Amino acid sequence: MKKGAAGSMPRLRGTRRRVSKSRQMIVDLMYFSRFVPLVTYERSMPFGQLATARQNHPERPPWSALFAKAFALVAEEVATLRQIYFSFPFPYLYEYEESVVSIAKELDLGAEMGILPVRIRRPNKLPLGAIRYKINELDDAQLWQRGFYRTLAITSYLPFFLRRPLWWVALNVPRFRKRFFGTFAISSVGALGADALTAIAPFTSLLTYGPLGDDGTLKVRLLFDHRVYDGATAARVLARLEEMLLGAIYEELKSDSGK
Fold this sequence. Notes:
By secondary structure, the protein is an alpha/beta fold. It has helices at residues 21-33, 48-56, 63-77, 128-137, 147-156, 160-172, 174-181, 231-257; strands spanning 38-46, 83-86, 92-95, 100-108, 113-121, 184-186, 205-209, 217-225. The strands form two sheets. It has a six-stranded mixed beta sheet, with helices on both faces. Strands 2-3 form a two-stranded antiparallel sheet. Helix 3 (63-77) packs across helix 4, helix 3 packs across helix 8 and helix 6 (160-172) crosses helix 7 (174-181). The N and C termini lie far apart (69 Å).
């Protein structure tokens, strides 16, 4: 490598790149997530038999489908899980009549990989196969031309001074909050052998889980908005979630496998 005139090493220059539309979406999400005080609770769950039942299922639904249905079933019993804290025009809790899950999914967007939400209404009322189909449906390029995802694509092209107010409205008007963000979320990189220890997100409840251990144990984390419910409630919710997965969800997997 040649040296400069004064004997110093040549100046290395980097490349300035524009923030892509998919990254901009995450930037906006993180901006508004700063205001949600999430607290994390963890529970180790023995899922050896559940994992076997899932493996033997003809459609092999992803873990996110199992957790989506189980958590929504628990939310039927615990109304707090369907509540969201709003601060405008004054502080109040809004309770939804149904659960809507938002599942983070990585997709190949052409120039890069990006994360987009898979929204599913009333997962507690759907069979696991139907939830699996809805999660995989996002791979269809034609989906981008429809409703919610077309709105996301259009919004990401707006300039800063228009985009952020739209985000604010979507997060602070109850009916828009449910439509664009759902009532709870699931995000995991367990399938890639990693585990998320912490996160920020604009949700009352965010579920995440790591890879399945050799002994069949799965560490499940519930990140919750402390303004809406407390640690004792979170601990009971995790215990009930385990019961639901080892009960109703396990039985559904076994029943479908026997057909």
